[in-house]
Amino acid sequence: MSAPGGEWRRLDGRTVLVTAMVLAGFAFGAGLPVLLGLAGGMPLGKALGWVLAGAALLVGAGTGADLVRWQRTRYRIGSERAELHTGLVLVKRRSLARERIRSVDLTANVLLRVLGLVKVRIGTGEHAAGGESTLELDAVSRAEGERLRLELLARTTSREAAAHPDGALAVLDPAWIRYAPVSFVAPLLGGAAAGAVMQVSEWFGAQAEVIEWVGDRFRDTPLVWIIVTLAAAALVAGVVGAVGLWIEMWWNYRLEREPGGTLRVRRGLFTSRSISIEERRLRGVDLVEPLGVRLFGAARVDAVATGLVKDQQDKHADINVLLPAVPRALADEVAAQVLRESASPTREAVLTPHPRAARGRRLRWALGAVLLPSALLALLGALLTPVLLWIAAACAAVGVPVAVLLALDAYRALGHGIAGDYLVTRSGTVRRSTVALQRTGVIGWTARRSVFQRRAGLITLTATTAAGAGAYGVHDAAEGEGLTFASEAVPGLLEPFLERD
């Protein structure tokens, strides 16, 4: 007999209604241009009849298939395993041991939220082919989703967890939205908006008219001002898009610690997301400062934890992000609370600067990245057209100072140190990253020296861990200093491979 609470259950029947509504919307979106196309060659009533018949067939077939899926899907949460059975022709029976379950995430788009449903994703945190390490219940009621989350993540509260109060660690401050326009998303969305205008106009056969209209607006305007104006318009569109995307992703944000030692992030305006991370899987934090955000004194906090597998179906599900871009002081404060420390290691650690040879390497890389393409353009200009010579000169004139500034900033960012139970490493300029990693979470060191590094007396050390990105580097440190740091950070791990004077 099944244990109490281990009976077989069905998904919520309203999931079939969600499928029907989605298919109806798709049929409307696809049917309207088809109707306009058919109306040009036959009577409107006949064209409408064909379109409605096709839409009814699509909606009926899709809804019927989903009804069969719903009838053939069962799940059960037993005392030892979580099981899911589904399929008609190809029957799938999958189960996860409850002791291996590490995450229960809830997601609901607009339709699911209106109907009070959520999609539940149960995972073990392992990377397996074919999604064998996850079970997805699409969809159940919100109350059932919360029950599953609490039941599957229930853990015995440790003494350490009991010594720290549970509750909210951070909640949304609308003032944080000011960092959205300075992220890298804004220019990307601006370029995407310009491309979308051209693509849509091509679909409707009006691309030439759009180009002509733009040309009429700038008929007597110099080329430079045309480029500047169009770039500014694209940037404004990108800023608006970045703000909208930020609101959709982070509205209703709340980071809290739940009884039993679980960190829970809830966020989302239209699509709500609930992501849970067990603290026993937490190995540290990553303080991320993209260039634009850093110029305004802000940073975000990412979790360095084991078992975080990104949902490939949800591109916005950054499951390792604990805190969006906020003032740097607040980011350090939240990082300390997440780690249960009095002060964040990312702020308290005294970082050792790297030798000047590391600065030279970055300057050479930066100048090479600018001068080599400029030299190629100049060569082509000498062979083909003088226009390329002007372009090459402009690229060099603008790119060299920017490259030098970024290289010097990248050098100043380099540093490593030890703060209590954590080793800290910092690097990057376009995306500066300060990682505080538990020393007990390091399972190996990789030492790498290129020919040029050996001549300069430099070494790159990479701490290997099962959490987060899997590897965190100390780039271009002084050889002796770097090896001493690695030896002191994790005693006994590197000693068998060291030769001491």
TrEMBL record:
Positions of the YdbS-like PH domain: 70-149, 411-470
Keyword Transmembrane attributed: yes
Transmembrane segments: 16-41, 47-68, 184-204, 224-247, 365-383, 389-408
Keywords from the named record: Membrane, Transmembrane, Transmembrane helix
Protein name in the entry: Membrane-flanked domain-containing protein
Organism annotation: Streptomyces pristinaespiralis (strain ATCC 25486 / DSM 40338 / CBS 914.69 / JCM 4507 / KCC S-0507 / NBRC 13074 / NRRL 2958 / 5647)
